[in-house]
Every structure is written in C-alpha cells, then in structure tokens.
Specification:
163 residues, alpha/beta, five-stranded parallel sheet, 7 helices, 5 strands, globular
C-alpha cells in the first residue's frame, strides 16, 4: 500500500506529544515499523516533507522510533520499492511557502493548517490519491469532510486524542 505520513506520527512514536495516550503511541510505532517493512511512503521531489521531518526528528535514527523512521526515509528516499516521490508545485506568490497549485481553492479549507498543505498536495498529485496518516493533529479532523470532497482519505491512528 502507498501512504503519506504526517509529521505528528513519528513525533508521537518518539513520545514527544504529551496528549498522546500509550495506545496512541503504540499505534504510531506499529504504523512506522509497518511502513519500513511493507509499505511505500509517498513523498515530494522537492524535499518539503523530508525537511519538515528533519526539523522535528533526529536523522541519526536515535533515540526514538520516529527518529529511526527519518533515518529510514533518508536511506530509502531513492528506492522506488520503498518510497515514491511526486512533483508538487509551490506557488511563487506564497508568503510562507505553503501554497501549492494542487491544494484545493475552497473557502472551507482556508483555515486548514498551512504547514500540512504539502501532504494534501502530494495526495492530490498522486494518481492513486494515497491515504494520509495522522496521529494527534486535530486540524485533519476539523477539515475531514471538506478534504474528503476531493478524494482525500485520512486515517486517524489516535481517535482518542481528537476532541
């Protein structure tokens, strides 16, 4: 299966998210280990996702499972059996670099977390529209119905963390 992993998943796996329950941490760890063994992670060609991962995680692969996931991403980013990279188009007039041509122009998504727009853009640019996995970020929950209108599937690993 091809999938996209929001940065909050490896952060929870690293136990860096206080609102995450032990069940939530376990679900995130399981997903990341499964991705490394059996799945295909979908990323962008321009490293928007990898740069975000690198800003929040340790590329040495230690001490947490999320850090090990980043090391795996860096090792496998060019391995088409493990990672697939998609081109997305950053809009040149973007104030903060988080506007992409692939992200829907929809008033219902105007307040969607700007830093997470790259994940939506990747999903929409991919011919299979792979699901996006989220742990504790409530913005995905708030905008779920609006995103589903565009064929975006969001898998919530930690429904207990969503108010």
């Amino acid at each position: 299966m091809k999938l996209i992993v929001d940065t909050n998943v490896p952060l929870v796996a690293n136990r860096q998210t206080p609102q995450a329950s032990p069940t939530c941490v376990e679900a995130c760890v399981r997903l990341l280990l499964n991705v490394q063994r059996e799945q295909t992670l979908v990323l962008d060609h321009d490293w928007y996702v990898i740069r975000e991962y690198k800003n929040k995680l340790r590329s040495t692969g230690e001490p947490g499972v999320g850090d090990a996931f980043l090391k795996w991403v860096l090792t496998n980013r060019n391995n088409p059996a493990r990672c697939e990279r998609i081109s997305i188009t950053r809009l040149s007039d973007s104030d903060d670099g988080n506007d992409f041509a692939e992200f829907p122009v929809d008033p219902a998504l105007a307040t969607f977390d700007r830093a997470d727009r790259k994940f939506v853009a990747i999903a929409l640019a991919h011919p299979e529209k792979p699901p996006i996995f989220n742990a504790t970020d409530t913005d995905w929950w708030i905008h779920q119905v609006s995103l589903e209108k565009y064929g975006i599937e969001i898998n919530f690993l930690c429904p207990d963390a969503i108010p």
